[in-house]
Amino acid sequence: MADENNQQPQVVEGGEAPATQQDGNQARGARGGRGRGGGGDRGGRGGRDGNRGRRDDRNRNEDGGEELIEKLVHINRVSKTVKGGKRFGFAALVVVGDGKGRVGFGHGKAREVPEAISKATAAAKKKMMRVPLKEGRTLHHDGNGHFGAGRVTVRSAPQGTGIIAGGPMRAVFESLGVADVVTKSVGTSNPYNMIRATFEALGTQTSPKSVAQRRGKKIADLLGRAHGADATTAEADAAAVVE
């Protein structure tokens, strides 16, 4: 007992006593440690939350940077047979476009209609394709497409014709930004087959600019030979080609 009471902290050179264990704990508490409650200057886990917030802002800015046209084409009630009976849900078919030559379609299934539509919209945004337009209002040339039993024909039209299309095909061209087009669909009334056949026809569209680059020629040479126009008219038509 006497030895314990007589023990005193040793004094090192310079007259300062060494820090005790309690002092060390206080110092670690001030630095903020690795625990959940350790705030400190570094803020614990707050750094990752901050990064997550910035990533969400970036996604919102990308989605809000362009205005997309969303068209709900078809909603179908579906069921899945399981051990206990049947589970009913909904399937949605959505077409999304920017009205400036980009369009896509998507399909989604869920237990509720709003969730199915949101899934289909997200799928459509991931599969958008670029279609060259003539003067920003119609197609450059005619095209055919088929999927399953469905066959569609799309034709360019003069200004003022409007969209001559019905059902799912009209939604595609309105989202695409086409103002004048004539279409015909035969073989099926299934909206899924009609949409896929329409996108196959749109995928075959080419522009004079891309053909000229592929063949190593000038746009005026292609237009003059195709329409039998003189050089001046061909040059004017070539200057008007944007894509």
Verbal overview:
This protein is of the alpha+beta class. Among the domains are: 69-203, Double Stranded RNA Binding Domain (2-Layer Sandwich), CATH 3.30.160.20; 208-240, no CATH class. It is built from 9 helices and 8 strands. The strands form 2 sheets. A 4-stranded antiparallel beta sheet has the order 1-2-3-4. Strands 5-6-8-7 form a 4-stranded mixed beta sheet. A hairpin with a 2-residue loop joins strand 1 and strand 2 (85-97). It starts with a helix and ends with a helix. Residues 35-63 have low confidence and may be disordered.
List strands and helices in order, with pairings:
Elements: H1 2-6, H2 21-31, H3 46-64, E1 69-82, E2 85-97, E3 102-110, H4 113-126, E4 129-130, E5 143-147, E6 150-156, E7 163-164, H5 168-176, E8 181-186, H6 191-203, H7 208-215, H8 219-227, H9 231-240
Helix pairs in contact: 8-9
The CATH architecture of the domain at 69-203 can be named as: 2-Layer Sandwich
Number of helices: 9
Shape: elongated
Top CATH class of the domain at 69-203: Alpha Beta
Give the mean pLDDT.
76
Computed CA radius of gyration, to the nearest angstrom: 34 Å
> What oligomeric assembly is this protein in?
single chain
**SSE order, as H and E?**
HHHEEEHEEEEHEHHHH
Strand order of the largest sheet: 1-2-3-4
Distance between the termini: 97 Å
Question: Approximately how much helix is present in the residues?
Answer: 40-55%
Number of strands: 8
What is the makeup of the main sheet? Answer: 4 strands, antiparallel
DSSP strand (E) fraction?
Answer: 15-25%
Q: What structural class do the secondary elements suggest?
A: alpha+beta
**CATH fold topology of the domain at 69-203:** Double Stranded RNA Binding Domain
Spans of 5+ residues with little confidence (pLDDT < 50)? 35-63
